[in-house]
Amino acid sequence: MAFLRTVLRKCDRKYVGFLQKDLLLLKNQHAIAALKSTAAACANDNVNASASPKDPLDITFEDAKAAFKSKTTWELVRAYIVYTLCSFETLVDHNMKLMKVSRAILGDRLFTALMKGTFYGHFVAGEDQYKIRPTLERLRSFGVKPILDYSVEEDLTQEEAEKREVESSVPEDKANVDDTESLKQYSVDKTFADRRYKVQSARTYFYLNEATCERNMETFLKCLEAVAGSTYGTGITAIKLTALGRPQLLLQLSEVIMKARKYMTEIVGGEGNVLSHHTTREELEKKIRDANITDQASVTKFLDSLTEDSKGIMHLFPWSGVVDDNQELSSTFRVPDLKRGRMVRLITKLSTKEEEMFRNMIRRMNTLVKAAQDMDVRIMVDAEQTYFQPAISRLTLEFMRKYNKEKAVVFNTYQCYLRDAFNEVTTDLEQAKRQNFYFGAKLVRGAYIEQERARAAALGYADPTNPNFDATSEMYHRTLTECLRRIKELKNRGEDQKKIGIMVASHNEDTVRFAIEKMKEIGIEPEDKVICFGQLLAMCDYITFPLGQSGYSAYKYIPYGPVNEVLPYLSRRAQENKGVLQKIKKEKRLLSSELLRRLATGKIWYTPKGNYVPV
């Protein structure tokens, strides 16, 4: 105890908060060992950060030794076996059935041992926040940081998933609809109610009740505690907003946002977000006054609630009040209808219970972000389907405004397979600049493209996706280039370049190379800590580890959870690997190369021991 108190006095302040928190856990032997490891790492970081080795980076990502120096020989053999099994289509297509049959035949104990020796051991870090620490420590010693995700998923049938989704996506009072035209995209359809349809690389939550959302929040809090206690201020926890509330509310909010954009287009022309019009209050007020709206008191209230600055109106509605002050949604989203000469509601009138459900969702999100801020870690809000995403992005930006005042605590995710990705990112960057908060973004290609295309075709609305892979890559690179350009502008003006932080979350070598080359071209160094890279645990190690070991900020997305409860996650990973056979071929080739090298050099019993310090 005296040793730990000494560390608390002498360690960097950024580590003190979670060290003090861990002192409360000293009765737990896992916690004692973890805390001593944390204290030792903290002291080592203070002494050795500047002396951390940096390897030259092979931009072709063909260096097998660099890719796998963090692995034991057994782990290389296991990886080769797992990737080989993922190449058999029949096996992968029926993997969930095979796992269930194996568990029934072998029993839980033998089945758990089998899974830990194969798929679970390869794709999952461990069972709980204590058992994953050795994995996190080893990753860190080879220059890689974690994004934690508790990957327990419900094993629902299609019928169960559809029933839950339909019931939780419609208003309680279906007769009490709004008096503006409904948008097809933002209503539930039973054909696509199982949101797992054609989705392999993303986890799906299905709403059951408010108690389940509370449990999800508690799970995310445990992830935050685990990442704070294991990563020394550099870790991230990934969350989904659909885990924290009723999907009906996200659908309705998304529809409100798109109706507001349509409303601005009809009044002032042009297209895009409200902010992009650069319309002043005076210009909007003149058009409304000319329409002779009968309820002038409500018009005045609407105008007084505009979010604006010297450059014009940013939002038609007081979103800060929705997040900060628990304003009722039904009374907030009303606009003057210039054609009918009266105020109209853009959202179906919510019941008292539904308003409370929305406040609960906001409370849960506030609890999580405040906890992340207190623990000095970050939260990454995952992107979801386009019929949820306008609401998810709008709320996430408001939490950025609220919490990203001194550093980026909250990150939003942007899917570059969407046609509007570039416009959405640039608009959000503009809001961050005008409201003076730190902007954090994760750029991904996206997980829902096949589902989005099928849904748009079936329901008869415009396909929101790019036409092909090349168009998506172009969108990704264009969006990333714009972010880098703005970071460079901040640097040139002598401002804090960390006002913009970007994660390049991609398993595509060309995209990673593009990002590195653009960083060099623009003059952004890895040590600037404004660009980081991320890949899934046990996927594309030949990208992640060489990046981390050469001084770039590199992350692994780390799933964890009990063996029997992460089977749906493992099933998706197997399916995803079947779909990226070219990457598997390269991974297997590099694994073979490293195994042969170790055999030829007598290093078959190699023990990984890194001394890298992550950026």
Automatic annotation (TrEMBL):
Catalytic function, reaction form: L-proline + a quinone = (S)-1-pyrroline-5-carboxylate + a quinol + H(+)
Record field: transmembrane: none
Pathway participation: Amino-acid degradation; L-proline degradation into L-glutamate; L-glutamate from L-proline: step 1/2
Source domain of life: Eukaryota
InterPro entries found in the cross-reference section: FAD-linked_oxidoreductase-like, Proline_DH_dom, Proline_oxidase
Keyword annotations from UniProtKB, A to Z: FAD, Flavoprotein, Oxidoreductase, Proline metabolism
UniProt name for this protein: Proline dehydrogenase
Source organism (scientific name): Nicrophorus vespilloides
Classification of source organism: Eukaryota, Metazoa, Ecdysozoa, Arthropoda, Hexapoda
Gene expressing this chain: LOC108563166
